[in-house]
Design a protein that fits this description.
Blueprint lengths: L50 H4 L8 H11 L11 H4 L3 H21 L5 H4 L12 H14 L6 H28 L12 H44 L7 H16 L6 H21 L4 H25 L5 H17 L6 H52 L5 H20 L5 H50 L5 H17 L5 H29 L1 H18 L7 H17 L9 H17 L3 H17 L5 H28 L10 H28 L2
Helix pairs in contact: 2-13, 4-10, 4-12, 6-7, 6-8, 8-9, 8-10, 11-12, 11-13, 12-13, 13-14, 13-15, 15-16, 15-17, 18-20, 19-20, 19-21, 21-23, 22-23
Length: about 700
């Protein structure tokens, strides 16, 4: 063990095999930087001994604590150099394992001393980068660079970069296929986007800042190394100074204070520099051998602080959060090594053995914790592999229509959520599992995109066909050759219905253009006929006069008689005949007046609609061409189908609330909406019945 303490042989024995640095040799270049733990344990205070205390007699230390340490470790301290029989009987493999544990701790302390961001990088959240699109990945990268320390986000940045590149490369492959399918030559293919350039720019900024940080860190570490080597030289010089012992001792304490504040040094120099420093500190204490008053004060202080470290390590050995315990244990080792000097030889072995035993216990707790986690991770792996298999199965069977693909998309979303909620898997298969998951999801996305790409092409072809029909309608809407153009306009209306869907964003727009052109033409046809029909002009005059009389009509207050009066009025209106196209708005005027009467009579909506509809039917039936009635009948059938479909959709929506109470506001709204549609359906059915009776 002896080489593990700061000063294994404080009695002056120089057989210590710890490597001592030749401080005149050139230092090597800084290797890759590692995180540094800068946190200090609040439980341990580093006391300072001032000159006033140097003349005081050293007080006795609480021997009960030391006795506990000695007895618990079965260490004999007869001569300060003999360890217990138990230790002597330990196997080589056990010693090797203990050395490995301590070596790991030494390496961790050295690594943490070089860079200050180790603890921080444990706390930066890793998000679901795979679920983000390219814009979101760029935003996340910018946020990390802006809000986190540049040296603490390397893993996050690399994951973001990999995800972005995979998504962009997939897009490139798709564009390449399109380019080749259109007859392009692969040599001429080139693809880039503004978002790719933006990502490259942000990533370049990250690399620049990271390189600048490590360049500055390298410079600082080398300067700190130089400063520490100078302090070692200054420490060595104390042995050759002829001055008052108080002055020399105060000089030594000043060197210790400056050493503590000298800053981090390169990791590969850490252990050697510290061992060299402790070696010359040991020499100084040998020099103070004749002045035990000073040495005993330091030994006493160091022993007290190391016992506090042991107390804290004992508490950590009982902690359930093994990762936090392990990180704090690193801090304790750092303090033991960097902040505290030697103790009396008789205590040196016992306290180190106690601290080492606690270190092993905390390490074993951590290893046992990881073993338990591995069992959980193995079960999680099985779950994730099953999920990947299901995703692969869903991806392997292609749907034939939009609704089928929408169902598959929902299935994949459920499986995807289940994958992310399944927990961690063993680290040795984590990358492989993640890669298999992404491959399965991407295969599904490729198949889905292929379908919608084909669907989009079909819709685009349909759009072009309908635009051609629009052009025909617009080219002929002003024609006066009614005999020739009317059959043509009817034909393109029929052709329009046979063409399939177009992109949703264009649907309403092109339908309006087509409808306006057709209506414009047929309105001209009707206007021409009305102009030649003198009877319609006379009918218009009669209806205008009838409306003036109707405005003067006052209801009696007897609903039955008043309704009969209104119906008689409607019968009279029917006899007045058709009006020309220019006067067709008179029907709206007449119906508005009737609405006022119906409102006074408090008739139901259905009754009102049917009475008014009778008036409309009479108008349609008076036309010589029966196409108007046929069109009206088709229109009503279409409305009935639409209302039926809306009712079915609302009833399906109601299934989502099957466990909700009837007084739930959402349930009540859906039920009211369903009833409203059912009322409308009854009205439309009644209208269809009336038109069939003609």
């Amino acid at each position: 063990m002896s080489t593990r303490d700061n000063l294994p042989k404080a009695d002056g024995n120089k057989d210590n095999k710890t490597e001592i640095l030749d401080i005149n040799s050139e230092t090597e270049n800084l290797e890759s930087s590692a995180p540094e733990i800068t946190k200090k344990s609040d439980e341990i205070s580093i006391e300072q001994t001032d000159e006033k205390n140097l003349s005081e007699e050293p007080t006795n230390i609480d021997n009960s604590k030391i006795t506990d340490v000695v007895e618990n470790n079965s260490v004999s301290i007869n001569d300060g150099n003999t360890v217990s029989d138990k230790k002597e009987s330990s196997t080589d493999s056990t010693l090797k394992k203990e050395d490995q544990i301590q070596d790991q701790m030494d390496e961790a302390v050295a690594e943490d001393s070089e860079d200050e961001s180790t603890m921080e990088r444990h706390n930066i959240e890793k998000k679901d980068y795979h679920a983000m699109n390219k814009e979101e990945l760029i935003k996340e990268l910018k946020e990390l660079i802006k809000n986190e320390k540049i040296q603490a986000i390397r893993e996050h940045v690399e994951e973001i970069k990999n995800e972005f590149n995979e998504k962009f490369n997939e897009e490139v492959e798709q564009k390449k296929d399109e380019f080749l399918n259109e007859g392009g030559d692969i040599i001429d293919f080139y693809y880039s986007t503004p978002i790719k350039k933006e990502f490259n720019s942000v990533y370049f900024d990250y690399k620049e800042k990271r390189n600048a940080y490590y360049q500055n860190l390298k410079k600082d570490l080398q300067e700190n190394l130089k400063r520490r080597l100078e302090l070692i030289e200054e420490l060595k010089g104390l042995l050759n100074v002829d001055e008052n012992i108080n002055t020399t001792y105060n000089h030594f304490k000043d060197i210790q204070e400056r050493w503590r504040n000298a800053g981090a040094i390169p990791r590969d120099k850490y252990n050697t520099v510290w061992n060299t420093y402790h070696h010359h500190t040991e020499n100084f204490y040998d020099f103070l051998h004749l002045n035990r008053e000073f040495r005993d004060l330091d030994f006493k202080h160091n022993l007290e602080q190391k016992l506090k470290i042991i107390e804290r390590a004992t508490e950590l050995a009982q902690e359930t959060d093994v990762n936090r315990s392990f990180r704090e244990l690193q801090l304790l080792h750092k303090m033991w090594k960097e902040d505290l000097g030697p103790v009396e030889k008789e205590y040196r072995e016992p306290i180190w053995e106690k601290f080492s035993a606690l270190t092993r216990q905390i390490h074993e707790n951590r290893q046992n914790h990881f073993k338990d986690l591995d069992k959980v991770f193995e079960k999680n792996l099985e779950v994730k592999q099953e999920i990947i298999a299901k995703i692969t199965q869903v991806a392997s069977s292609n749907a034939k229509n939009h609704s089928g693909w929408q169902q598959k998309i929902k299935e994949i979303e459920v499986l995807r959520d289940a994958f992310f909620n399944a927990g961690k898997v063993p680290s040795n298969v984590n990358e492989q599992t993640w890669s298999e998951f992404k491959t399965a999801v991407r295969e599904f996305n490729r198949n889905k995109n292929s379908f919608y790409k084909g669907l989009k092409k079909d819709q685009f072809d349909n759009l072009n066909k309908k635009i051609e029909l629009i052009q025909i309608a617009e080219d002929n809407k002003n024609s006066d050759d009614f005999t020739t153009v009317t059959p043509l306009m009817k034909k393109i209306q029929s052709d329009w219905k046979k063409i399939g869907h177009v992109p949703r964003k264009d649907s309403d727009k092109i339908w309006k253009r087509f409808k306006d052109a057709c209506n414009f033409y047929f309105d001209r046809v009707h206007a021409e006929k009305n102009e030649l029909n003198k009877e319609e002009e006379a009918s218009l005059d009669k209806k205008q006069a009838h409306i003036e009389k109707l405005k003067e009509l006052k209801l009696s207050g007897d609903p039955k008689n008043d309704l009969a009066t209104i119906k008689e009025n409607i019968v009279v209106w029917k006899t007045l005949g058709r009006v020309p196209y220019k006067g067709k708005s008179i029907e709206d005027t007449y119906n508005n007046i009737l609405d006022g009467f119906f409102k006074e009579l408090n008739l139901s909506r259905k009754e009102t609609e049917l009475i008014k509809y009778e008036n409309k039917l009479n108008t349609l039936s008076s036309q010589t061409d029966d196409r108007a009635l046929k069109n009206e009948q088709n229109f009503i059938r279409k409305k009935i189908d639409e209302v039926h479909a809306e009712i079915r959709q609302l009833e399906n929506n109601l299934q989502f609330f099957k466990h909700a109470k009837d007084d739930n506001p959402l349930v009540r709204d859906v039920q009211k909406n369903i009833q409203k549609h059912r009322d409308n359906l009854e009205v439309w059915k009644a209208k269809l019945k009336k038109i069939k009776q003609l």
